[in-house]
Amino acid sequence: MEVKENLKTLANSILDSYETRVRTVNVLMDQSYHFFTEHQLELDEMMERLKDNLARAESLRKRDFDRMTRDITERQHSQEEGVDEVFDHFKEEETEMIGRLRKIIISGNRSSLEDVEAIREDILKRQKERENSIIKVLKRFQIEQEELGIALKRLLSKGEYVRIKDFKLMLKSIREQHSIRDTELDHIMEDLEMVRNWVQAEWQAVARASGQ
C-alpha cells in the first residue's frame, strides 16, 4: 500500500510540475498573440498610408492597390488566424491530457513504476509535438510580419516621391520570399530552434528531478 501511495505521489508530482508549466506557456502564448495582433494592426495602417501616397503621387486607384496586394494581406490575416487556432488547440489538448492522466492516478488501476514512466513519456512526447507546432507557426508569422513592415517603411519614407515601380518591386520581393520560405522554413531562424531544444532539456531535468 505504501509503495502504491508513493507512486501516486510521484505521478501527481510530475503532473503538478507539468500543469504549472502549461499555465506559464499559456500566459506566454497570450502575450505573444497580443503582440502579433498589435503588430498586424500597425501593418494594416501602414498599408493604408501607402495606398493613399500612391493614389496622390501616381494616381493609382485604391481598388487596383487592393487587387495587387490581396494575396499578401490575405496571407497575413490567414496566418494570424492560424496562430490563434494553434494556441487554442494547445490549450485544449493539454487540459484534456492532464485531466485524463489525473483520472488514471485517482482510479488506482495503474500503480506500477512502468505506468508512472509511461505517464512521463506521454507528457514529454505531447509537449514536444505541441511546441514544434507552435514554434513553426510563430516563426513564419513573425518573419513575414517583419519583412512586410521593413518593406512598407522603406516605401513610406519616400513620401510623395514613391513610384508604382517601387511598389511593384516590393510586391515581387515579398512574394519571392514567401516562395522560398514555403520550401525552406525548417532551415531558418535556428536561434528559435535552439530555444526550443533548451526548453525541452529543462523540462526533462524537471521530470527527472520529480522522479527521484
How confident overall, as mean pLDDT?
76
Radius of gyration over all CA atoms, rounded: 24 Å
Largest sheet: none
Task: Give the tally of β-strands.
Answer: 0
Structural class: mainly alpha
Number of domains: 1
Low-pLDDT residue intervals, each spanning 5 or more residues = none
What fraction strand? under 5%
Helix share bin? over 70%
Distance between the termini: 19 Å
Order of helices and strands: HHHHH
Task: Provide a compact summary of the structure.
With 212 residues, this protein is mainly alpha-helical. It contains 5 helices and no strands.
Tell me the layout of helices and strands.
Layout: H1 2-58, H2 62-107, H3 113-156, H4 164-184, H5 190-210
Helix pairs in contact: 1-2, 1-3, 1-5, 2-3, 3-4, 3-5
Structure in words:
There is one protein chain. With 212 residues, the chain is mostly helical. The protein has one domain (2-210). Helices cover 89% and strands 0% of the residues. The protein has helices at residues 2-58, 62-107, 113-156, 164-184, 190-210. The longest helix is centred in the N-terminal third of the chain and has 57 residues, at 2-58. It is rod-shaped and about 75 Å long. The relative contact order is 0.14.
Key traits:
212 residues, single chain, mainly alpha, 5 helices
